[in-house]
Structures are given as C-alpha cells and as structure tokens.
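Anyone up for a design puzzle?
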C-alpha cells in the first residue's frame, strides 16, 4: 500500500532527527520518496523554535493500525517529548494518506484532518505528490498548497552552497540588547563545544588584528602545527574567513557545516553563525591550534567563548564608540575582555589603552607582555612590520604553552604576505591601484604614510566610501590632506554613509560625488595620469564593490553589524 507521512522536529538537531526517523521507518516498508526539508513557523504555541518538516512516500504491507504503532515506536525511540502541550518535540510523525482510503477511528483519522490548512505539511508533500487527489476534498495536493493560508511562514531549506549564502545574507543582525556571547555559547554547547577541542590564540584590537592573526597563523603552520584561522570581514568570498593551514574552507564543507549549525534552530546573526561554523570546522579538521580574530570589541564578542592560550591585543583607537564607549579607556576595557584567568596576554598599545589592559591582566594574575619596537624579521613591508612584531611576540608567549615558532618560521610567514584589501596593489588598465580597508583615522593615517613612502612624489587620487558610524570629519581631513582628488561614493552596504556626509568637510575643488561605486571607480581611472596612484579605501565593503565590478559581478553583503 502506498502511504504518505509527515515528519516534523523542532527540538535538538532537527535535521538529524528527521534523518534518523526516516531510517527507522524502513522497518515499516520501503521509503520511495523523500521531500526536501522546509523550515516552518509553529502552528500552535508562539515563541517556540521553528520546525523542520518533510514528507515521505512509503510502500508498506502494514495495516493502518500497525503502521500507526510503528510510527509511534519511531517517535519513542527518538525520545519524543513535549515539555508542554503543543510544545517543542524531537519528532512528530503523522499518517497523511493511506492509499485512497478513508479511516475514522478513535486512534486514527486518515486523511489527516485539517491538512488543507497546514502549510507545513502541504509544501513538502507537494514536492513528492503534487497530483495526488485528496479522497475527501477531491483536490490535488498542489491545488491545496496554492490555496493554503500560512505560506509566508514556510521556507524551503537550501540544498546547495549558493542557496546557503542567500540564507545567511538574509539573517537579521544582532540587536544592541542582545550584544554578548550568550547565543554563541548556547549554539556551541549544542554542537558539543568544539572550541574546547584545541587551544586558541584570541586576537582583538582596533587596527591590524586581521593581518596579525594571519601572520601568526602562517607562522604556526610554517612551524608544523595544523592551524585554523578565523578572520573577518571577508573581501570577496565568505569562505575567506575560515581556513586551515592557509587553505580556505571548500564549498562542500562550508555547506555541510551550514546544514549542521542551522539544524539546531538557534537565532544567530551572520557573524555568530560563521563563528560556530569555524569552531566546528577546526575540530573536524583536527586543528592543533586556532587563531581567532574578534569581530567587535572583545569582552562581549561572539568569539569570546573560550579561555585562550594567548590573548593578543593590537593597537587601540577610537571606533564604535556607541557600543564600546566614548574614550580609549572604555574601548580598551572591551578589548581586554578577551584576557581570561589562566591565559597569557600580549598588548601593542600605549597610553590609557595600555593602562586599561594592564589593570585587567593584573586583576586576573595574567602575565602581560608588550610588543617590542624592533624589526621582527626580514621579508615584510614597512606597512606590515608592526603587525609582524605583534605576531612575533604572540608566537613567543605561545612557547609557554608548548608551541615552538622559530624566527625562520616567522620569516616564511612574512614572505609574500599580501592579504586582500590591506595595502593590496594591482594594475588596472595601466594604472596603479591600491586597495586598503582603513576605516578609522588612525588606520587611514597609517595607510597614507605608507603610500607616500612607497610612491614618493606621486599624485594620489582616491575613491572613498565609509560607514555611517565612522568619524566623518576625521576621515575627511585625512583624505583632503593627502589626495589631489577624492571621488566620494556609497558602498552598497545597508550601513553605508551618504557621500555628502564626507563632502561637507572637503573643499569642492577636492571632492566629487558619484554614488555608484563602479562609476566612481571608472571615473577615477579615467582621471588618473600614467604616474598617478589611485587609492580605494574607507571601507572593506567598498573594496568588495570595486573588486566585484572588476570581476563582472555584483557584491553581496551580510547584515552582521549590531544595530
């Protein structure tokens, strides 16, 4: 007999629960078709987790009563439980149709009553039996689906990498009231706390933290350690954020991790989601150590979920003052939050920031080491020398935890080091273009200082775009002091500032406004002479826009900043 079943789960690992149920149902007959999974809003009892739902076609010799007993047995084996009526459950299996039969008994009603109003049943069922006719209503499953209310609460789960990216990019950003690692800790606990499977070096700071993280990871890999690296933001591809021994995560593995993390139904932001994926990836790859870059601040960042072997704090400057505080001391306190009892700390800061970090380390009895001002090793440009010095000091203190990183390994890490969007030089249509994500005054000053050393006496043109939360006056002053022409544009991020914000602090002779990034870049190229230098800076989002334009595609951005 051909029967159709509905399966639903909204407790624990929803995907695994449904897969286990389908495997157990093979005792009742031959599973001939399985629908894709859908995520749906709960029909009753608002506030509980969303469901994963699927439909299956089964060929069975069991009677309706025996099939009902078999499905109940599967639910029991999967420890079906409800903490309250209509509440969350590990598994729910319903018999939708038993052939074309109509059954009405105290224990079983087939066709399932209320099916026509249940979008969470009809959407997956229509994928495997669109033309099946409801024996009572006389309508096809597809027609019932089309007229069913509640379709807005149903979405088909991604079945390939590109669809997973669309899903991730649609996630809502974290809210200010939820700023903290609680959601991340809960998610990682459900995954078995993979971040505890290997030691970590945790890196926070206002500027240089990505490059420092990359250099430290490269040095550890060159020393023979299997090393995970998690950084943000990405420039062209979100897979840039997660790598092991310099190899970014593959699309297939990225998708498998996405399915695993999404299966638990946690309400995560894009950054929180990828953070969980990274920790799990490093565990699966048997990493011996991982270098983890904090996203925003430190103490309340989603990455602050472990006691690191080493806590590394790069330079501290004014940034995100609405969240971190209005002065260097308060910002530094947030950064210093990555220092935990039992770790070793490194700091590359002075003044009030150093004082704040020192107080935190002293209160916890943590040894604190300052970065020495010296040439760390050969093979790195002046622009990255300070980051390499910080990475070298971090490598040195990791020796206290049994990791041996030689000077030769640091030199190998520095050789050819050219991270995307960090003083990245390219030739475009015969012109020299330098991409840099500097987005606060301290970083922008450093960028232009390095640019003038690298290209002395050259005229500089700039395509600039920034985010709304940046110091527009401070940035504009630096652009105006260093550039013969500044073309102001609007990166295609939801957080981007209007170019008029910067233009208000620049002279009309220096600044032009072209809101479309691709047009702004084209105009800048046409305006640049053979000996001129074209800088693209102010935001990694702007760099992503321009690079996507050069590659003939359109950039897409996640909504990961706290609002």
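Challenge accepted. My sequence:
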């Amino acid at each position: 007999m051909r029967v159709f079943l509905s399966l639903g789960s909204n407790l624990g690992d929803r995907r695994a629960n449904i897969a286990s149920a389908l495997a157990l149902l093979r005792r009742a007959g031959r599973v001939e078709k399985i629908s894709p999974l859908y995520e749906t809003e709960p029909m009753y009892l608002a506030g509980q987790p969303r469901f994963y739902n699927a439909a299956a076609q089964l060929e069975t010799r069991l009677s309706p009563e025996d099939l009902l007993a078999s499905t109940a047995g599967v639910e029991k084996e999967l420890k079906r439980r409800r903490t309250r009526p209509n509440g969350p459950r590990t598994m729910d299996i319903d018999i939708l149709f038993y052939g074309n039969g109509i059954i009405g008994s105290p224990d079983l009603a087939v066709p399932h009553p209320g099916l026509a109003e249940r979008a969470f049943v009809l959407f997956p069922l229509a994928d495997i039996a669109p033309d099946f006719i409801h024996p009572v209503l006389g309508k096809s499953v597809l027609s019932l689906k089309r007229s069913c209310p509640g379709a807005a609460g149903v979405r088909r789960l991604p079945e390939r990498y590109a669809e997973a990216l669309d899903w991730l990019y649609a996630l809502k950003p974290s809210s200010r009231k939820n700023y903290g690692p609680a959601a991340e800790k809960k998610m990682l606990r459900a995954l078995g706390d993979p971040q505890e499977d290997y030691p970590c070096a945790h890196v926070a700071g206002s500027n240089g933290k990505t490059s420092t993280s990359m250099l430290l990871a490269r040095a550890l890999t060159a020393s023979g350690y299997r090393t995970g690296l998690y950084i943000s933001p990405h420039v062209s591809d979100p897979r840039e954020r997660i790598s092991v021994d310099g190899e970014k995560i593959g699309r297939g593995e990225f998708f498998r991790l996405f399915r695993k993390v999404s299966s638990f139904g946690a309400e995560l932001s894009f950054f929180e989601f990828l953070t969980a994926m990274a920790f799990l990836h490093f565990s699966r790859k048997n990493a011996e150590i991982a270098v983890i870059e904090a996203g925003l601040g430190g103490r309340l960042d989603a990455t602050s979920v472990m006691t690191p072997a080493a806590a590394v704090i790069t330079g501290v400057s004014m940034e995100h003052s609405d969240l971190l505080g209005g002065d260097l001391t308060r910002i530094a306190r947030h950064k210093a939050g990555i220092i935990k009892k039992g770790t070793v700390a490194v700091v590359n800061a002075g003044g009030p920031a150093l004082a704040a970090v020192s107080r935190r380390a002293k209160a916890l009895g943590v040894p604190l080491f300052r970065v020495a001002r010296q040439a760390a090793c050969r093979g790195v440009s002046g622009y990255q020398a300070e980051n390499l010095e910080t990475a070298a000091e971090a490598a040195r203190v990791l020796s206290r935890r049994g990791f041996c990183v030689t000077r030769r390994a640091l030199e190998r890490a520095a050789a050819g080091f050219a991270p995307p969007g960090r003083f990245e030089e390219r030739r475009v249509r015969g012109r020299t273009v330098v991409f840099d994500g500097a987005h606060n005054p301290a970083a922008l000053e450093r960028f232009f200082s390095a640019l003038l050393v690298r290209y002395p006496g050259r005229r500089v043109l700039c395509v600039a775009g920034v985010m709304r939360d940046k110091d527009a006056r401070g940035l504009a002053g630096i652009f105006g002091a260093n550039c013969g022409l500044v073309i102001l544009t609007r990166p295609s991020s939801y957080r981007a500032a209007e170019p008029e914000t910067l233009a208000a602090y620049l002279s009309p002779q220096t600044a032009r406004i072209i809101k479309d990034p691709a047009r702004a870049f084209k105009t800048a190229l046409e305006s640049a002479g053979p000996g001129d230098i074209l800088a693209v800076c102010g935001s990694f989002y702007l760099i992503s826009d321009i690079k996507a334009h050069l590659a003939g595609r359109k950039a897409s951005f996640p909504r990961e900043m706290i609002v």
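A detail worth pointing out: The chain has three domains: 2-157, 163-414, 424-550.
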